[in-house]
Structures are given as C-alpha cells and as structure tokens.
Design a protein that fits this description.
- Chain A is of the alpha/beta class.
- Chain A has a 6-stranded mixed beta sheet with strand order 7-8-9-3-10-11. Chain A has a 5-stranded antiparallel beta sheet with strand order 2-1-4-5-6, with helices on one face.
- Chain A is built from 6 helices and 11 strands.
- In chain B, the strands form 2 sheets. Chain B has a 6-stranded mixed barrel with strand order 3-4-9-6-8-7. A two-stranded antiparallel sheet of chain B has the order 2-10.
- Chain B has 2 domains: 161 residues, no CATH class; 180 residues, no CATH class.
- In chain B, helix 11 crosses helix 13.
- Chain B has 14 helices and 12 strands.
- Classes of the chains: A alpha/beta, B alpha+beta.
- Chains A and B meet through helix 1, helix 2 and helix 3 of A and helix 1 and helix 12 of B.
C-alpha cells in the first residue's frame, strides 16, 4: 500500500465538461495514491476517463472537485489550486509520452538539460545533471546525437531522462511502450522501476499494453469515471 | 539558457537560408527601387551641379530649360553680364536625341544611310548640350574630363559622358553632321539619366532650330514669291530676310554665375525687371526638377515600394506561420514541460527577425551587385539601407505576431494523447 504522506494522492476527484443538459461527468470521484518509488498501472477502455485523469494529474486541466496532494502539498482542493501550474509541471511532474516528442532541433543532452535550464539552473549544472541521467539510462554514448539519429528505444530512454531530470515526485507515463516490441517495452518498464526506486519517484503508467500489465504490483482500473484498485501480478522484470 | 531559435535555425539551416535568399531577392528589388529613386534625385542634383550656374534665365513664363521648351535670343546674355552681381553668363542649348557612332568608312563618305551592326547596337539616347567652345570654366561647360580635351574649335567636336560608350577619336552623327569625340567626362547626365554630349553652341543651334534642306528650299521659294520681301530693284531685302530665316540665333537658356557674396534673389529680380525673362534660382530649379519633372516617377516608385513591402510582410508572415505550424507538437510539449509563453514567443520572434536579417544581408548584397547593370543610375545610400533594415525588422516582428498568436493558443494538453 502506498505511503499516504508522500508521492501523489487524489481523493474524490471529479471533472465535468460543459454545463446544464449537455454536461458530461468524465471523472466521478476518483481515489488514487502512489507512493514514492512505486510504479502503478492505470488501465481502462477508451472513453473511461483515463486521459482526463492524466490531464488533471498533469495540471493541464483543472478538476471540478476533489483533492490532489503532491508530496505534502495540496495542489488542488475543491476549487482552490496553486497559482503557477506551469512551474508545477516543470518542477514537480515528469512526463513520458507514447511518442518520445523530443525537441528535434536540440541534441540529446540539451533535450534533457532544457528543463533545469527553464527552471533557471545554470547551463553547466543542467548539462551535468543530464549526463548523469543519460549514463544511468545507458544512452550517454549518444549524448551529442540529434533525436532523429536515435532508435525508438533510445528516444524513449532519453524521454525518461527528461522526465526525471528535475527530480519530480511524480512521473506520468502515457502509453510509453505502445510503439515498442515486447523486449523493448519490458526494458522501458524495467527502467521506470529502477528510476522510481533510485529517485524515490511515484510513477503512474497509463497503458493498454498487455505485455506490461503483469509487471505492476498495483493496478488502478478506471471505468465510467471511477477507479478501483486491484493487486497486480508484479511479475519479476530482471 | 540555450537559444531555442538559434538551435532551430542551425538544425534547419538549409530551409532558413533558402527562404532568406528568396526573401533577400525581394528585399534586393525593394532596395533597388529606392536606389533608382535616389538615382533620379541625384541625376537632377548633378545636372544642376554640372551646369555651374547660380541662376537660370529662360523664356518668360516657362519652366525651361529642363522641364519645358524655352527659346531666347542668343545676344541677351550680354545685357545680363552688365547687371551688378553677375560674374559670368553663358548661352546654352539642350536637345535630347539619338546619337550613333559612325564607322570610319561611312564617315569618310559622309553617308547618311541607315546604320547596321555594331553602330546600330551602340546608338544611344543622349542630351546634346550646346556650349561656347574654349569656354572652360564658364557655366554650362563640362565640369571636368576623364580623358581628352575640352571643346576648342567652333564646329564638329564633341565631349561625351563615358556612359555613352563612345571612344576618343570616334565619330558620331548628330543630325546631318559628324562630330569627333575629343574628350570624355563622367556623371554628366540629364534629369532623365541620359548621358550628355557637349558640342559647340553654333552646331547645337543648327541641330536644334534649323530645318532640313527641302524645308529650307520650300521656305526660300515662298519668301521669294512674296512681293513684300522680293521688291524690284531691292534684292538686299530678300537676301536679308532669307539670311534671317536660315540662321538660328536662339538658345534655350542663359546660365548665370554670381559674384561671391551676391544675393541670388536680388540679381534674379533685376534680370526679371530689366530683361523681361523668367529667372530661377538654384533652389527653385531644384524644386522644378524634383517636384514636377520626377515627381510622377517618384510616386510610381513609392507605390512599388509599398507593394513590395506588403508582399515581403505577407511572405515573412506566411513562412513563419508555416514553420510554426510545423512545430505545434513540439510547442505543446514545451508548454507542457513548463516553458514560459514569452520563451516560445521569443523563439518565433527571433526566427522571424533572423529570417529578416538573412534576407536583408542577401538583399543588400544583390542590390549592390546588380546596381551597375541597371541602365539608369542606382544610388544606394547607407541611410536608406539603415532605414530599410529597420523596416525589414519591423515587418518581421509584425509578421511573426500571427505565428506567435497561433503558438500561444496551443493547448499543452495536445501533447497528452486521448
């Protein structure tokens, strides 16, 4: 069970699109808690509210009600929210997408170092931090390469490094293994688990991928805007 | 912080350079149009400078000699010379016509048949200026020579501007007569940019005012048939009338140079009062040339400049907008990971300005390179280039606003699937 005082915790999260007769309740009271160093799966059919939940967690859209607590700090509480969502996304949340979406005109190091630079850290320190992560993810030999020169697996590892570089307490991974074959998909999950433990980061993986679902110890199923938790197989990755 | 715009430009430098070159050619045309206008103004200034005159005495109530026809008696200058404040006064005629070189074999036989080959190709439109030979330093004379000598003989010599392409010793045909090029000068042009060819005043008067032989014979016949002129026992009356008809004593203007310290307006007023002529000062003549003679052309060029500026702005806006649309996903990711709006706007703005700078450098370079090829004088002033650069930057900034607006409207949620 997740540690309630850290990681990310959401309680009774609701999201309504529109108003009046045309209103649609995409989230109807979602509860979820992910501890630091834990990787959980979030699965559900299309239209179940996965993307809406991810956007709420990613501070991209504002919930209609409920609570979201990141670490020890509430970021949303029934209509109240912290003011600077952009800084929150930059400093507290890491994103890994289905496609890596690396910036094509920056090399691998600067793709990773961009976030600390945006946060105001010196270029040298930012690049040093990027190189450490690239080494931890075994892509330091491609540090000067452009994204177009990387394989799909390498691009995804660089994207993970970018998500981790500001040491966020939570990483949101949106279908990170969808374009990869089984071996590479499991490799990505292995890396996410290792990084989660190493950096004490809570990781939420939104996925349809049957190959990786058995690897999670806990899985949140979402259907009709509500979640329910169940234990996963937690199949060994090593 | 790294320069996102700079990295993007370096990454896609080929696209930027080729786009910049295309824009640069357009800017080059725009700068050339401005240069053509400046050249016209400079030609007008040079025309007045080269005349060496402070005042222009012309036929009453005309804007002559450059903007309207003007005819004066060629002895009026003597009276003007006696007025206080006048240092020099000289007759001058101006006539714009086609001048062509003549091959030596044709010159020997003084043939007047149609030219062929090289001569026809080298035929030039020129302003024929009639000046008194041996009067170097007088108003109206060529200001300096780059080769040869000034006019010294009374007939059949010419000094030409180098842009005519005529060579020293070469013969050119002006109306019925052949003239030998004895001197070459530079930047002697009419307000229309035609190079000048200086010939002796008497020849110029003949070229401008005399009729052809058939017309003279017909006029003599008519005069002789008139009993008023052809009186029995008084043949000298008919001779005098015929002589008056066949000799030209008209010029287009009298150029007046003042003594040091003389007041141009006072001297001009004296000439108007005592000689019943219209007189223009340098400032007035400048106004006539610029406000009347080249005003329409200047407005035409200004319209071209406006249209080219609008087209340039539209092209820059389109290019920057297209480049931005091509990066929508990257912009969404940048926004999602916390990039400030002003960083993204700055990236687009820098790219637009960068494109403008590339375009301006290319434009200035090509305008400088192709300026000498233009048939008329193209004067590219550093001040115009600086103003042009400022306009290009302003256009690029304005053109980038559409793209910036599009980028700022990108929802960071677009980076998240679903």
């Amino acid at each position: 069970m997740a540690d309630d005082t850290q990681g990310i915790r959401i309680e009774g999260l609701r999201k309504r699109y529109g108003s009046g007769d045309t209103a649609v309740d995409a989230l109807k009271g979602v509860d979820m808690a992910v501890a630091p160093g834990e990787v959980v799966g979030l699965v559900g059919p299309s239209g179940s509210g996965k993307s809406t939940l991810l956007k709420c967690l990613g501070a991209v859209i504002e919930p209609t009600g409920g609570r979201m607590i990141l670490g020890d700090h509430p970021i949303y509480d029934d209509g109240w929210r912290i003011r600077d969502l952009r800084a929150l996304r930059r400093d507290k949340i890491g994103f890994v997408f289905q496609a890596p979406y690396l910036i094509p005109f920056l090399d691998v190091t600067d793709n990773v170092a961009l976030l600390p630079m945006l946060a105001g850290r010196p270029n040298g320190e930012s690049r040093e931090r990027a190189r450490e992560l690239l080494a931890a993810l075994d892509v330091e030999h491609r540090a000067r390469a452009m994204p177009s020169q990387l394989s799909g697996g390498e691009q995804q590892r660089v994207a993970i490094a970018r998500a981790l570089v500001n040491r966020p307490p939570v990483i949101l991974a949106d279908e990170p293994t969808a374009p990869l074959d089984s071996e590479r998909a499991l490799g990505v999950i292995r890396i996410l688990n290792r990084m989660a433990r190493q950096y004490r980061t809570a990781v939420i993986v939104v996925t349809h991928d049957e190959k990786i679902i058995p690897t999670f110890r806990r899985i949140y199923h979402i259907r009709d805007g509500r979640t329910h938790e169940e234990a996963g197989e937690g199949r060994a990755l090593d | 912080m790294i320069s996102l715009a700079g990295r993007d430009i370096l990454h896609a430098w080929g696209k930027f350079v080729f786009t910049g070159v295309g824009l640069g050619l357009l800017i080059g045309v725009t700068l050339s149009m401005a240069g053509i206008y400046r050249g016209m103004v400079d030609d007008a200034e040079v025309l007045l400078d080269n005349s060496g005159a402070d005042l222009w005495a012309v036929q009453k109530d005309t804007l002559g000699p450059y903007a309207e026809p003007s005819t004066l008696a060629d002895d009026l200058y003597r009276g003007i010379l006696t007025l206080p404040g006048v240092a020099r006064a000289a007759n001058v005629t101006y006539l714009t016509m086609q001048v062509r070189p003549v091959a030596p074999n044709q010159a020997a036989s003084n043939q007047t048949s149609d030219p062929a080959g090289d001569e026809a190709a080298r035929e030039r439109r020129a302003m024929i200026v009639g000046v008194v030979p041996g009067g170097f330093g007088e108003p109206g004379q060529p200001p300096f020579l780059v080769a040869g000598r000034h006019l010294t003989r009374g007939h059949y010599e010419a000094v030409a501007d180098v842009t005519t392409g005529f060579r020293l010793g070469e013969q050119v045909r002006i109306r019925r007569n052949l003239y030998t090029i004895v001197g070459l000068t530079r930047r002697a042009v009419s307000s229309g940019g035609d190079p000048m060819v200086y010939i002796p005043l008497k020849d110029a008067q003949e070229a401008q005012f005399l009729k052809d032989n058939d017309a003279i014979i017909a006029q003599r016949r008519r005069t002789a048939a008139n009993p008023v002129f052809n009186r029995p026992g008084q043949p000298e009356v008919l001779d005098a009338v015929l002589a008056a008809q066949t000799q030209s004593s008209s010029v287009n203007a009298i150029l007046v140079r003042l003594e040091p310290g003389a007041d141009a307006d006072e001297v001009a007023a004296d000439i108007r009062r005592w000689k019943h002529l219209t007189v223009y000062t340098r400032a007035e003549m400048n106004e006539i040339l610029q406000a009347k003679l080249i005003a329409t052309s200047a407005r035409q060029i200004f319209m071209f400049l406006v249209i080219l500026s609008v087209v340039s702005a539209a092209i820059v806006a389109f290019i920057i907008y297209t480049l931005t649309l091509g990066k929508i996903r990257e912009i969404a990711v940048l926004k999602l990971i916390g990039t400030r709006n002003r960083t993204i706007a700055g990236m687009i703005l820098q790219q637009a300005v960068g494109l403008g700078v590339i375009g301006f450098v290319v434009g200035k370079t090509v305008a400088t390179l192709w300026a000498p090829i233009f048939p008329k004088y193209v004067l590219l002033l550093p001040g115009d280039a600086a103003r042009g650069f400022l306009v290009v930057v302003i256009i690029c900034v304005l053109a980038s606003l559409v793209a910036i607006r599009a980028a700022l409207r990108v929802d960071p949620a677009e980076a998240i699937g679903g």
